[in-house]
Amino acid sequence: MSDLLSLNPALAQQLGVADGDLSSKQATDALKKLSLEDIMTGLAANGKNAKDMASYKFWQTQPVPKFGEKAEIEEGPFKIVDLEKVPKEPGPLVDGFEWVTMDLTNDEEIKEVFDLLYGHYVEDNEAMFRFNYSVSFLRWALLSPGWSKEWHVGVRASASRKLVAFISAVPIALRVRNKVLHASEVNFLCIHKKLRSKRLAPVLIKEITRRCYLQKIWQAIYTAGVVLPTPVSTTRYYHRSLDWQKLNDVGFSPLPHGSKPQYQILKYKLPNNTATKGLRPMEEKDVDAVLDLLQKYLQRFDMAPVFTREEVVHWLLYKKDSPDEQVAWSYVVEDPTTKTITDFFSFYCIESSVINSKHTSIRAAYLYYYATTVALQPHTQAQLKERLNSLVNDALILAKKLKFDVFNALTLMDNALFLEQQKFGAGDGQLHYYLYNYKANPIAGGVDHMNRVDEKGCSGIGVVML
Ligand SMILES: CCCCCCCCCCCCCC(=O)SCCNC(=O)CCNC(=O)[C@H](O)C(C)(C)COP(=O)(O)OP(=O)(O)OC[C@H]1O[C@@H](n2cnc3c(N)ncnc32)[C@H](O)[C@@H]1OP(=O)(O)O
């Protein structure tokens, strides 16, 4: 991960140009030849991950699109599942291991999931950082409205009882263009490092699928940094330094050639106070207004959740009497004259462990949902851009005050309108969006032919995955 804009080396190689030689006419011509589908689904930009369909031994057996399947298809499920034929028991595991359903309301069991993820979850390519989702975060993410214990699936070593693998799902009403799917959102797939490359992941995926089918859930949404058959969309990570010096110390933000640390610190300096009149933390009394605003705003995107009131309360409102530490922060703008809620934004916290550094962790804020009434009335893109820039600038100021080191965002929703102006730098990472058992035409991920933020097209993705 870095905040430097660079041409992915795999793509450069694929195009036959020197790494980073973005200006060369050769690169531009070659990029133009790539199919829109490849660009939208990230296959062009992420050649290092892409394999032939035939080499995806597991995924080629699953109800997901094959690479290169043509666009403009009629959207719908790949198959209709016969509930009668869904096995009532889990598939076999290798000797010495057994299935468990985790009880995440039990402090010890959620701590076991935390420990597994803490030691073995997603790392960057150079193994410098590893996501460190807190116990409070896991409770927030996995005990959301409608959660089911059956969807918190673990594997234990029979002798030691140690938890060695995990996969989870929570329910989501997901609108894909004009159809609403009652689907599951699959996340936190993790296998102990000592059990890697033993084909356990397909076994876990088949088990969570079986458990979803048993609850008559036939579709799922999931995201991954790796290319699998076949992304419906690909978004790119952007990072905005809040504490440049610390990010530099840990190797996240290198000093750009020809710059000096003090210039970088100055570049990312923020005002002490927010600028939007009427901005304040979201409260219980704002729930209905936020729900209404968010539902309308999310109509702008091809794929977005359909939130209920209960979900807005769960995902966005921090209850001060909660025993959990705060993981999400939400703010509203209340018009001082009309007292109506005109805008809102939110972000959540994930720390990352820093492997081998004097700093042990980085505190990252991730942009979550937001909405503004500017988009709901007749408006120009410049007006929307201006409003989003002021809101996000305030979000950065608040995050800085809350001692976050970096503010991360993807190129989804309308983020393309503010990322560069707010000094977010393009990261190396991409996040691919996938649908299980649902054919859908590609959705714009907010990056253009050059894998740069696409201000004109923006993105059709309105789902933020944790
Ligand atoms: C209707 C309901 C449906 C519900 C299900 C919907 C689908 C949900 C899908 C899951 C959504 C999860 C969303 C998240 O949580 S994304 C986060 C994933 N977790 C991590 O990256 C944590 C660190 N890594 C690990 O723990 C392991 O490396 C994992 C577990 C990722 C793979 O373990 P391992 O390295 O030991 O490999 P293997 O030998 O067992 O298995 C190899 C097979 O697994 C395929 N593979 C590798 N990585 C992923 C991946 N991230 N999604 C899907 N498939 C993946 C791979 O292409 C190969 O298949 P194929 O190439 O031969 O075909």
From TrEMBL:
List, for all copies, the residue spans of the domain called Glycylpeptide N-tetradecanoyltransferase N-terminal: 82-234
What's its EC?
2.3.1.97
Checking InterPro entries in the record gives: Acyl_CoA_acyltransferase (IPR016181), NMT (IPR000903), NMT_C (IPR022677), NMT_CS (IPR022678), NMT_N (IPR022676)
Example GO molecular function: glycylpeptide N-tetradecanoyltransferase activity
Q: Which reaction does it catalyse?
A: N-terminal glycyl-[protein] + tetradecanoyl-CoA = N-tetradecanoylglycyl-[protein] + CoA + H(+)
Q: What does this protein do?
A: Adds a myristoyl group to the N-terminal glycine residue of certain cellular proteins.
Looking up PANTHER family in the UniProt record yields: GLYCYLPEPTIDE N-TETRADECANOYLTRANSFERASE, N-MYRISTOYL TRANSFERASE
Similarity comment:
Belongs to the NMT family.
Self-association state and partner proteins as the record states = Monomer.
Its name, as the record gives it, is Glycylpeptide N-tetradecanoyltransferase
